[in-house]
Design a protein that fits this description.
single chain, 568 residues, alpha+beta, 7-stranded mixed β-sheet, two-stranded antiparallel sheet, 18 helices, 59% helix, 11% strand, globular
Length: 568
């Protein structure tokens, strides 16, 4: 009996972070729901007990059902039948198990039949499901689209759609088109008002749509005639029960084979407006994408976990020259770096999730009552941190995911190239994490303004003031020095007042910030739990080298040499 929650004490470490009490008390409105719902918690300890029980169930399903089905799902995959998606048999079993366990609508309010959980246990469940099968989490995990309906739809729409998600119906977000990938301003799917029937009609094509045949979809479409930019786009809710959308084909992908990536044809499909016209891209998709990026960060951590465990197990069992290969420095050094990257990306993931939890909960409270000055300030503080940390968690987490998957195959040697070993599938699955929901390069674009405005620097300084164990004060002092190196590099680049130069150095500056921040997080983790000691020290050594490398490059780089890069 495998349980992906119980076999990983790192998850409980992050679940019991000190900020969780504040998050839960706000989320539960001081536990007032206990008067209305017999399953609502009475206090903080009761809530944490509920979180753990649900995570144990998610861990058991991930370990006993989803993971054993992963190979067959990878081989069988979904297929199109009469214009609709038919999941692989293993996918159907996975979904059935999670729905029956009540693991849909985890973070939605109880009045819509949700569990009203913090985002932390939801992201933790996604972490575990991703470890089991990265492709399947793209079906189950798209329930976070329901958050967008909750935030921006009217109450009638919430009451009609959200209970269906909690009951097990799947979702999709239909954004990209053949000529509109990352540039969503180019979306041309046409939305036309049907005044006679009190709805809208959608016509056109969408491409690369994850779980495109889901029961409920959020669709970005052009509602304003004569427009060609983001101001002419609105968000719509499409209900599969109304028909009008056909799956033209499922893409034949490198990895995440169990996840149906669809090309969709809309023919006079009935839909209804979500929120206000013209705000589809400007407001709603931005919120939707931030949630999706957090989900991909969780997927990246789960895949990293799977890759590391496969490599570690193989290195312990495989013998060469009379001993297990884990005893060779070239191998144990590789494994230690894999573990450090995994722990660092997970720490960043849950730090980011807590920030999102805090500001979203305050936003929700603000819908109920006016916030006072201190409450508004706290909401604004966490909103800025969430905005800064989300692209960092997605960008660096997905890159580490790819690196760990690569190294897992490398530890296996020739065997890792064979489909007999899970690391081959994990390697293929990992590759997409740094591409979809915004490539790593686009995450840098989102993150760089927090470099130039000082968000990351301010947070580094806050971490430097936090209480840590005596053993880590020498590392903390070195991180303070590295922070000064980072600050100098930022000053050098920004003082040139050359946008092209800034864009070219952006990746290095963002990575420097990420390396320093994750080093601080691991030191704080190790202060609370000594099991993180090795990762904190290994990651610091790696981060120090990376920060100094980037700083040296920036220091010696001459702006005039950009012209040579353009010729390459």
């Amino acid at each position: 009996m495998a349980n992906f929650y119980n076999d990983n004490p790192d998850l409980k470490h992050h679940l019991t972070h000190p900020l969780m009490q504040r998050i839960i008390e706000l989320k539960e409105r001081n536990f007032s729901d206990a008067e209305k719902y017999d399953y609502a918690p009475l206090n903080f300890d009761d809530a944490m007990d509920s979180y753990e029980k649900v995570l144990e169930i998610a861990g058991e399903i991930s370990g006993d059902i989803v993971a054993p089905n992963a190979e067959s799902v990878d081989h069988e995959g979904p297929h199109v039948v009469d214009g609709h998606v038919e999941y692989a048999e293993g996918t159907k079993k996975n979904l059935d198990a999670l729905v029956k366990a009540g693991l849909m609508g985890i973070s939605l309010p109880r009045r819509y039949n949700g569990l009203n959980f913090s985002l932390v246990p939801y992201i933790m469940a996604a972490d575990m499901v991703s470890r089991a099968d990265a492709g399947f989490v793209n079906i189950w995990g798209l329930q976070d689209c329901a958050e967008t309906i909750y935030e921006f739809a009217d109450e009638d729409q919430r009451c009609r759609f959200l209970p269906r998600v909690c009951a097990g119906e799947t979702m999709a977000m239909d954004l990209t088109e053949p000529d509109a990938g990352s540039d969503l301003q180019a979306v041309m799917l046409k939305a036309t008002p049907d005044e006679e029937n009190g709805c809208w009609r959608l016509n056109g094509v969408k491409r690369f749509i994850t779980n495109g045949d889901g029961h409920i979809a959020l669709v970005l479409a052009r509602s304003e005639d004569g427009t060609h930019d983001g101001r002419g786009l609105s968000m719509f809710i499409y209900d599969k029960n109304d028909g009008g959308v056909t799956v033209r084909r499922i893409e034949n992908k490198m990895g995440i084979k169990g996840s149906p990536t669809c090309e969709l044809v809309f023919k006079n499909a009935k839909a209804e407006l979500c929120g206000s016209r013209k705000l589809g891209l400007i407001k709603y998709v931005m919120a939707l994408m931030n949630g999706a990026r957090l989900g991909i960060a969780a997927q990246s951590v789960g895949v990293s976990e799977a890759a590391y465990r496969e490599a570690l197990s193989y290195a312990r069992d495989r013998k060469q020259f009379g001993k297990a290969i884990i005893e060779f420095p070239a191998v144990f050094e590789m494994l230690s770096v894999m573990k450090a990257k995994l722990d660092a990306s997970r720490s960043l993931l849950y730090e980011t999730t807590r920030f999102v939890d805090m500001y979203k909960t305050w936003e929700d409270i603000e819908r109920e009552r006016k916030l006072d000055k201190e409450e508004k300030a706290e909401m604004k503080y966490y909103s800025k941190l969430a905005d800064a940390f989300t692209p960092l968690a997605k960008g660096m987490g997905s890159e580490y995911c790819n690196q760990n998957a690569y190294d897992s195959v490398q530890v296996h040697g020739g065997s890792g190239f064979m489909k007999d070993y899970a690391c081959e599938r994990i390697y293929r699955d990992a590759r997409i994490t740094s591409i979809y929901e915004g490539t790593t390069q686009l995450q840098v674009v989102a993150a760089i303004r927090h470099v130039t405005t000082g968000t990351y620097l301010n947070r580094m300084n806050e971490y430097a003031q936090m209480e840590i164990a005596e053993a880590y004060k020498p590392l903390r002092d070195k991180l303070v020095e590295l922070t000064a190196v980072y600050s100098s590099a930022v000053e050098k680049v920004t003082s040139a007042k050359d946008s092209e130069y800034l864009d070219m150095m952006a990746r290095r500056l963002v990575e420097m910030a990420g390396n320093i921040i994750m080093s601080y997080l691991l030191i704080l983790d190790a202060t609370r739990n000594e099991s993180f000691d090795a990762s904190a020290r290994v990651y610091f050594n790696m981060a120090q080298a990376e920060v100094l490398k980037h700083a040296s490059f920036i220091d010696k780089f001459e702006i005039d040499s950009i012209k040579y890069y353009k010729k390459a």
